[in-house]
Amino acid sequence: MGEVEVTHPPKSSAAPPGAGPAPGPPAMPAVPPRRTAFAEGLDRLRAAATTEPGRLRIIGAVLALLVLAFGAVTAWQTDDRASAADDVLNRSQPLSSDAADIYRSLADANTAASSGFLAGGQENATAGSRYENDIRTAAEKLVTAAANSEPDSPSAVAIAKLNRLLPEYKGLVERARTYNRQGYPVGGAYLRLANSRMQDRMLPAAEELYTSENERLKADYRDATPYPWAAMALGVIALGALAWAQQRTYRRTNRVLNHGLVAATGAAAIVLLWLVVGHSVARAGLNGSYDHGVRSLNALHDARIASLKARGNENLSLVARGADTVKVGGQTYDAYYYDFDRNIADLGRSLAEAKRLADDRAGGRPVAAAEDDMAVWKQRHASARTEDESGNYQQALDKVIGAEGATGECFDSVDAGLKTALAHERDQFEQSARDGRRAMSFLPVGAAVLAVLGAAGAMLGIGRRLSEYR
Amino acid sequence: MNAREERGRRASLRGWGGVGAMAAGCALALASVLLLPLTQSAGDPDDGPPAGAGRVAAGSQARADACADPEKQTLAPSGADGPTIDAIKARQGAKRKLIVGVDQNSYRWGYRNPNTQGAELEGFDIDLAHRIAADILGDRDAVQFRAIPTNQRIPAIEDGRVDMVVRTMTIACDRLSDVAFSAPYFKTGQQVLAPKSSSITGYDDSLADRRICTATGSTAYTKLSEDKQNGRLPSSTDISVTVPNQLDCLVQLQLGAVDAVVTDGALAASQAAQDPTVELKGAAFTTEYYGVAMKKDADDLVRRVNRVLVDYRADGWQRSYDEWLSATLGKDAAPSRPPAPEYLRTS
Fold this sequence. Notes:
The structure holds two protein chains of two kinds.
Chain A: H1 37-48, H2 52-119, H3 125-147, H4 154-182, H5 186-224, H6 229-253, H7 259-320, E1 325-328, E2 331-334, H8 335-357, H9 361-389, H10 393-401, H11 407-439, H12 443-467
Antiparallel strand pairs in A: 1-2
Helix pairs in contact in A: 2-3, 2-5, 2-6, 2-7, 2-11, 2-12, 3-4, 4-5, 6-7, 7-8, 7-11, 7-12, 8-9, 9-10, 9-11
Chain B: H1 2-22, H2 27-43, H3 53-66, H4 83-89, E1 98-102, E2 105-106, E3 110-112, E4 121-122, H5 124-137, E5 143-147, H6 153-158, E6 164-165, H7 173-176, E7 179-181, E8 186-188, E9 190-195, E10 211-215, H8 219-230, E11 238-243, H9 246-254, E12 260-264, H10 265-274, E13 278-281, E14 288-290, E15 293-295, H11 299-314, H12 317-329
Parallel strand pairs in B: 1-5, 1-6, 10-11, 10-12
Antiparallel strand pairs in B: 2-3, 3-4, 6-15, 7-15, 8-14, 9-12, 9-13
Family (chain B): Belongs to the bacterial solute-binding protein 3 family.
Protein name (chain B): Sugar-binding protein
GO cellular component, one term (chain B): outer membrane-bounded periplasmic space
């Protein structure tokens, strides 16, 4: 219609105007300027838009595309978030906990080794097996951590370092034990070396690992929780377009309902609602798992590490017997007692924080118990220190590693309380995170299926109108 | 002084390059040509005694004159109480104890036997500390032991953290300005400890290119760094490894981080006793005396300890030697016995 036939010779213009050009495809233009397929398509579209069936076809195509695009973006964005939520639950949180356990096991092994030395004579079986268990736990968790770390990442570097240092450390402790059994003081020298390896190299590496695993956990949270704005905007646009199309149909035909379009609207509305509600629930669950789980877990891990360090320093002050001093503000202090005081202060702070974060009785009770144990520990430590400072070394030793009424009991109870609290908070974390993840679990597939159905509905609805023109 | 000559030699070598470049006539080049034979012979250890050595020896002679025989720079014995002893006796209750800085890592000197029940320290130094406590406070157990690292012995006395240090401490000239010493209670000398399989033969050129471990702040370290300067020790010897306690050197030796240990023969023998694969190499290359170190102005305490030592040498010293040291240093106590004390210090 209306095309200008530039290729035909002038004689054709002599044909009667009523006859019109011959039906069928116009001959391919053989003379430049050649027009692009896009321009031609645009022309075609423009031509189609002048007739109602043409307009209907375009509207149908746009509606179907909008609904499909909405579904696709929803599926893509929610899938991203669901997998990030999955990582939080199954990957980064367990790894961050593992890293904390690695730190704990190493520090505990070191404490057990120094206690064994302090006990002198035949090292008692509990200290020995505690040390062995700690080393085993650390080695096992290092394997898991290594399998989950990316090459050349800070975690991988820290893990490689720990894997190298652990057998070295163990070798030094074994030598210390052997010499101790022979009654040679060089055993104590080996233990001091092992301790400084642990304090100066291994624990910092383990702390690095813990920090970088925690960063990864936070990054996964960041990926899992933002609102899927693109999908939501597309949903609103698709619904708006569907509404407009139905209103147009109503204006032209006075028919209220077009089944296909109604179905498409329904499908799009369900996806949008599902998206908003599902994501909000997931977000709430994940944020809850962070606020009630991860933050509590971090505070408890910090408390446990502080109590371990305090115990280690308490032991080492007796191993060193005043050999190491620090000068602070002109005053000279025993280096280990000075550190102990700081560790206990850290422990108090972390316990207070954990208590503040504990949101139910089951979580608060073990923390409160640990706080009480800490208070007793401080008392007993003060009396042991007085003995030590008065030169009653044996009495001080009894008050630190003795069987009854020793600070060792308090440390063990604090540790046990923290262990219970950690298990409880981990449960809470898992529950919340699992709820969050579940809210999004079928969303990607559901959005895709519903979008396809919706697009089909829109096409069918428009097709029905179109058929009225034939 | 040697270091300055070394620098001069390097500068003159650079001067040689300048000579080549400038070809002729430059006054600086002339000067370096004139000086070259002199500096070269001073720097070359193969050319007999270095030219500077005489001056270095003269210097140390001059220093030694200022403090001849440090072991004799102590006060005459006396049993009288004074302000220091009064302060110790005035301590109340559980704190009425003599606070003694000791080592807990020196096998047979001051150590804790891991296999005995209890946590008592034992050894030759510990016996002496008990003896002094018994004399001052009337109770041999009225003593509180503080373990102190080698380089903390003097600060611990100066800060008043301990009343005295009985910790295989050598009476040395440079220490006399910081603390006061008792009369000597033991005679020893620096010795080299190395694995039996090692090619090190003693304190000589066999230490070239070897790494030696010493304790931070020990006389051994001072001696090594002096000897490296004056050429008695090959300059390629690495003495950079220092540790808080001499026993940590044995750990370094066993781990292969060093090739030899230099410490007092008495302590080196204790180390050798703990590891059958190492031995003392060569004879002692210094003579040193152990003394009890106290605060510089604690005259009454110094005199009192010297009186205790008079009794101790007559009765007790040999018993302690037999119990603790004969196994590692040999049955004959004569080489270890301190000389008859002289009390040259008057104030």
